[in-house]
Amino acid sequence: MASRRPDDADGTDAEAGEADESPARDEVYASEAEGRQYRSTWYCPLPYDDLDEAPESASYPDRGTGGAFRLASVPRVPRVKHVVGPSAIMLGASLGSGETLFWPGLVARHGWGLYWAFWIGVLTQFVINTELQRWTLATGESIFRAFLRVRRFWPWVFLVGGLASLGWPGWAAGAAKVAATAFGLDGTAVQFVGLELASWKLLAVALMVIIWSSYQLSSVMYNAVEAIQVGLLFVAIAGAVTLALVSGSLPELGGLPAGALNVGTLPPEMDVAVFLGGLAFAGAGGYLNLSQSLWAREKGYAMGNYQGRVRNPLVGDEPEPVRREGFTFRPTRLNLRRWRGWWRVIQVEHFLTFVFGLLFVATIMMSVAARHAPNASADALAMWLTDVAPALGGVGALLVFLVLFVALFTTEYAIVESFVRNSADAVYEAYGRDAGWDLSQLFWRLLTAFTAWGVLIILLFTAPFENRGPFFFLVVGAALSGVIMWPYAALTLVMNTTRLPEHLQPGWARVVAMWWASGFYGFFSVLLVGDTLVAAGVPAFETTVGVLGSGTGGYVLWAAFVAVELYVVTKSILGKYRADGTVPGADEADQPFA
Predict the structure, then answer these.
(1) Is residue 90 scored above 50 in pLDDT?
(2) Average confidence (pLDDT) over 36-57
(3) Which of 121, 188, 178 is nearest to 401 (CA)?
(4) How confident is the prediction for the chain on average, in pLDDT?
(5) Domains of the chain in sequence order
(6) C-beta neighbour count of 191 within 10 angstroms
(7) What is the tens place of the pLDDT at every residue in 50-89?
(8) Residue 343 near residue 84, CB atoms below 8 Å
(9) H-helix or E-strand containing 133?
(10) What percentage of the chain carries pLDDT values higher than 70?
(11) Among candidates 178, 104, 201, which has minimal Cα distance to 408?
């Protein structure tokens, strides 16, 4: 790591005489007309090569293994209503996993006593998601570029984890299964290129093709996704509310308060893989969460406003550059006030859209499952199709099919978007940029390849997995998603407390929350790894919830977990104390839960 001077020594710590003046409100906040430009996405190109380079001092982000950041002013702050979008896509990614499948299934089988894990999981993901955006807001760089500045292998690690967890089109398969059941096609087969295939397979293939085709509707890839996802969300939420009213399930919510306070209690028969999947999908989970950084850049949040967007190479618009070395700003009073405004806006946007949306929709669906499918099977998709829908009949059954289909399709759509966008950026930053590749071309090719891969997996989905149904894919993806959340939560905290300057670092409340997030997912990841090894015939790696009573190998796993957490806590504490007092006026950026 390059040495850094203790303060901003480049002689440019003020702009246009503003050092001692409090900036006017219209200097900090965008006008209505300016704010509306964010409603789709907004890119503001700058003469990159003519901009000053940020010096290596404590007032600017640490370069790590990368080059110098360019200096620019923080854009004025829009209203929350102008920047809604990234969190809506994340909400859509969540609906068809935890919110309509895992958690309703868990509550139906085990009661409201598990609800504590859901709301804690949602709030934990709120903290992780907003911390993943911090580097992008501060520099315009993606989280993968940030990880690359730490060590070159990190983007590859998460790329492999993403493929392992999201490379299975379980949500498209699930949506197709719902549609096949609704139209009386479940159990039927059709002839396709000489093969006899279950009807739901062809429907699933059609859904994958529809998702691919939708990207050709806009010159900016992100805009098509956001518009379609928001529309699907309205349908899913309205359908869920109507279903709750028609099914008469709202009285079931009486058990919610006790379950919400039942913190730490688990049923003895709980399957660790399913529970970890539920924790990961109390929200979007896993590789999906990393997209929050890229969507912030595409939307034009803060310093991401100066980075280009991923365009459709088939539409014909000129490409926009995504700079290797991002942007940062001088810590003047005006810039710090604008940074504080941006940080407040993205937190409010994510809380109102993502957190509130999840708690509202998922709780409604849990009440329906608890009332009409008590003691349901472990297959949550089968629970809705064979227990709840027949029990309701008529309009109620149609609503079940509608909500389930839209939720699963919305999630598959978001998963394709998230996986392709993350993977394109990871490959581009780790290899493609130096090789002279074009990011938009890379995105389009990965989109096509991932769609083809999903189609292939669906068509080859045969014994012994056929009898387990699409939900098998969802459990595998969810459990692996929970495992990869541990390393990136830990890495993001260390990075944000050791490589960002004082005024951009998370406050102590957020640091503690991220300690919790890292420990939370790490703890259950160790349990899952232990259970998996025991099932593979290695009993020495047995792990227990209370730690004591684990096997010899299990204690090794727990020791590794403790070592990682001690490292994360120590590095973040040292990073905070070393940065303290190094940037004059840093308190201008302070705010609750900064």
Answers:
(1) yes
(2) 93
(3) 178
(4) 85
(5) 25-462 (1.20.1740)
(6) 8
(7) 999 999 999 999 999 899 999 999 999 999 999 998 999 8
(8) no
(9) helix 115-139
(10) 87
(11) 178
* Among 402, 382, 578, 363, CA closest to 474: 382
pTM of the model: 0.89
Name the token pair of 243.
């279903």
Q: To which residue do tokens 């303290």 refer?
A: 580
Three-state SS for 92-125 is HHHHHHHHHHHHHHHHHHHCHHHHHHHHHHHHHH
The pLDDT confidence band at residue 8, using thresholds 50, 70 and 90, is: very low
Cβ-based neighbours of 99, under 8 Å, separated by 6 or more: 281, 358, 361, 362, 365, 407
Contact 67, 325 (CB under 8 A): yes
Distance CA(203)–CA(470), nearest Å, equals 13
Cα separation, 86 vs 531, whole angstroms:
35
Q: Determine the residue type at 556.
A: V
- Tell me if residue 162 falls in helix, strand or coil: helix
Compute φ and ψ for 500, nearest 5 degrees.
-105, 145
Quickly tell me which residue has 């990880």 as its tokens.
Answer: 147
CA distance 495 to 587: 21
248 φψ region: left (φ > 0), alpha (ψ -120 to 50), beta (else): left
DSSP secondary structure letters along 187-232? T-EEEETTEEEEHHHHHHHHHHHHHHHHGGG-SBHHHHHHHHHHHH
**Strand (E) or helix (H) holding 560:** helix 552-579
**Cβ-based neighbour number of residue 435 at 10 Å:** 8
29 or 414: which carries more pLDDT confidence?
Answer: 29
Question: Model confidence at 274, in pLDDT bands (50, 70, 90)?
Answer: low
Task: Answer positive or negative: Cα dihedral of 5, 10, 14, 17.
Answer: positive
In this prediction, residue 4 carries a pLDDT of: 40
- Write the pLDDT tens digit of every residue in 443-493: 999 999 988 888 887 777 643 344 455 555 555 566 677 778 899 999 999
- Scan for tokens 């409090």, then name that residue: 22
9: which 2 tokens? 């020594």
Amino acid at 585: G
pLDDT band per the 50, 70, 90 thresholds, residue 19: very low
Distance CA 368, CA 366 (A): 5
